[in-house]
Design a protein that fits this description.
heterodimer; A: 198 residues; alpha/beta; Rossmann fold; eight-stranded mixed sheet; three-stranded mixed sheet; 6 helices; 13 strands; 30% strand; globular; B: 273 residues; TIM Barrel; eight-stranded parallel beta barrel; 33% helix; 27% strand
Amino acid sequence: MVTIIDYKSGNLKSISNGFKKIGTESEITRDIEKIASAEFLVLPGVGAFGKAMENIEPFKELIVEHVNDDKPFLGICLGQQVLMSSSDEAPDVNGLDLFKGHVEKIPDGRKIPHMGWNQLKIYNNSQILNGLNNDFFYFIHSYHVVPDDENIIAGYCDYGVKIVSALSENNLFSTQFHPEKSGLQGLKILKNFVNLKY
Amino acid sequence: MLTKRIIPCLDCDLQVPEGRVVKGVEFKEIKYAGNPVELATKYYEEGADEIVILDITASHERRETMKDVIDRLTENVFIPICVGGGIRKVEDYVKMLKAGADKCSTNTAAIHNPQLLSDASEVVGSQAVVIGIDAKRRYISSPEDAKDKNVFETEKGYCWFDCSIYGGREFTGIDVIDWALKAQELGAGEILLTSMDGDGTKEGYDIDLNKAVNNAVDIPVIASGGVGNPKDILDVFKKTDVSAALAASIFHFNEYPVGEVKKYLKENNIKIR
């Protein structure tokens, strides 16, 4: 059973459809009890960092607790960025600080947002990207994460600059791209996620 | 490297339950290409990078049918879906996104009320706000004749590009380049750029138009209108830096299957997934 946190951000239905397709039950909820007792937690997200942190506020402690208990957690797109310490998009707002590092604007000189299918390069081996080196995933974002510690980078892609595309530490995972919009390869990531042991 | 996107477009008549995909927008020889949910699923399986679904009969009650179509197709289609036609209010964006769409495209409604773009981007994010621009060439004998417009020298002479609305039935006199820049500033995240001169002609994309708009803005541009065969798609990617190419009729009835088009582009050194 996967619990998808509904904090008024983005296309949640596609994520639950993705889990349904791989035969896993999921629930979209903002119920504190359900989130507190979740086994597998997903934090989706599109939109702006500041607004997202505001909407996450009621679930903040639950998320931190879930991660500290080393239960599987997946952040997607903006759901990856809010795991970081801070972001240029809202300099006065603190992130969840579960991954140490900063979120920066993608440098000028290319189309922004970075929108479309880009090729993932595995960096450090992570269970969640098992069997997916060089596959293509769907990205749509204007900011990117720059973690302090290179060891947590699971994968990156090339957009004239290196875009860190996935982070991984213990049972905490995140992707900048949208697995739920990345065809069969994306569904494989959801599958890898629900197959995690904890 | 970011790959170029190939986007099949489903022009839908939603006056019947479940809707139907129309081929050939001219009313004289209208043909039905199939059921939107089935076709979207087929194109997804063949390797489409994204799908655009346009309601060509946009009206209030038919939006419920569209919502239902999106609702059902996103159960099996795991690529981005953009919906257009009849998106007039911020609530329309929210409703389509809730049903499982990722982006909504507006044209006429945004020209009448540009603030719709900023309001919508604030609520659903720029990534979901696509501005549809239908461009018509206006030829002039010298740049002096249209001093307040962005004039381009083309093979057929000097011209500027006029924004059309209501599916090409009305013209606004608004310069396409100016409007594209304004839409970007207001919060649009992508431009779906259709050449009204090319639409339905199968003579190829309007290269001058696509180059002009793409060079002016920072957001991605989808080329549309005029495609007759895979060579036209190759041309627009070779001659301009647009991010994606949209085509409707060439994919229907297996005229040129999506997979074969992508293979052809790859063989010609275009970065394709």
